[in-house]
Automatic annotation (TrEMBL):
It comes from the Bacteria. This is tRNA-specific adenosine-34 deaminase.
Length: 59
């Protein structure tokens, strides 16, 4: 995983990502974020390519 700015950096310019981190961790008090599944067939193709990859790095 590569990233540049921190969630604190984002908060300084008005993007509060802390709630999203709490949702992912299961620590959010309310559900303000909805999860929508879309384009599953395309995503499954990416998974199939990953399964066939010989030099993959597991994380």
């Amino acid at each position: 995983m590569y990233y540049g700015c921190t969630r604190e950096d984002a908060a300084k310019i008005g993007f509060d990502d802390n709630y999203i981190y709490d949702v992912i961790k299961g620590e959010a008090d309310e559900k303000r974020v909805s999860f929508v599944q879309m384009d599953r067939d395309t995503c499954l193709e990416a998974f199939r390519e990953w399964e066939q990859k010989q030099d993959k790095v597991r994380y």
